[in-house]
Design a protein that fits this description.
Elements (H helix, E strand, L loop, with lengths): L20 H23 L9 H8 L4 H18 L12 H10 L2 H14 L4 E8 L2 E8 L10 E7 L6 H4 L3 H12 L2 H11 L1 H6 L1
Antiparallel strand pairs: 1-2, 1-3
Helix pairs in contact: 1-3, 2-3, 5-7
The protein binds fe (ii) ion.
């Protein structure tokens, strides 16, 4: 199976003024596309050729290297686009709101902790809200690394590579992180991820 670049779930200008059309054109059309193309080059003629992207990420995690870096970045970006929505952000509702209250003692404490992870990740990487053993957890990963290969189920991510924000915010990563949390998070997507990971709990709620 040749992997393809997934389309954005919104127009390139749909996240303005928070993330510009120009940023999304470069980030999706150039950066994400390059990870997908490189992964296709690397799996050609190998046992990975017909595998799903998630399986390639898991299978290449131990050896690391080029295949893992490109495949994980392809997966992380496809996930990140869905974490964003026009008119998103702010306090969540639904099951994730209850889970956040339970795990962190309220949205404000969650916000502080997630923003802290995103701003303190040194250099390129990602911050995540994931489930581990059914419990919510905030973490950060460097470069292409992903919770998929650390026994976690990712629910939400923010890309903190400079290419995600430099055109709009230059070196002001904390501003980009605040805007992400206050105006862009797709809690609908996070709730869907939570329901998929905990189907019994979600239906009982
Ligand atoms: Fe990125």
């Amino acid at each position: 199976m040749t992997l393809s670049l997934p389309e954005l779930p919104y127009a390139y200008d749909a996240l303005e003024p928070h993330i510009s059309k120009r940023t999304l054109e470069f980030h999706h059309g150039k950066h994400h596309n390059a990870y997908v193309k490189k992964t296709n080059e690397l799996i050609k003629g190998t046992p990975h050729e017909k595998a799903a992207l998630e399986d390639i990420v898991r299978a290449s995690a131990k050896e690391g290297g080029k295949l893992f870096n490109n495949a994980a970045q392809a997966w992380n970006h496809a996930f990140y686009w869905q974490c964003l929505a026009p008119k998103g952000g702010g306090k969540p509702s639904g099951a994730i709101a209850e889970a956040i209250d339970e795990a962190f003692g309220g949205y404000d404490a969650f916000r502080k902790s997630f923003a802290g992870a995103a701003t303190s990740q040194f250099g390129s990487g990602w911050a995540w809200l994931s489930l581990r053993g059914g419990k919510l957890e905030i973490s950060k990963t460097g470069n292409a690394d992903t919770p998929l290969v650390h026994g976690q189920v990712p629910l939400l991510t923010i890309d903190v590579w400079e290419h995600a924000y430099y055109l709009d915010y230059q070196n002001r990563r904390p501003d980009y992180v605040s805007v992400f949390l206050d105006h862009l998070v797709s809690w609908k997507f996070v709730n869907a991820n939570l329901a998929a990971a905990q189907p019994k709990k979600a239906s009982a709620a």
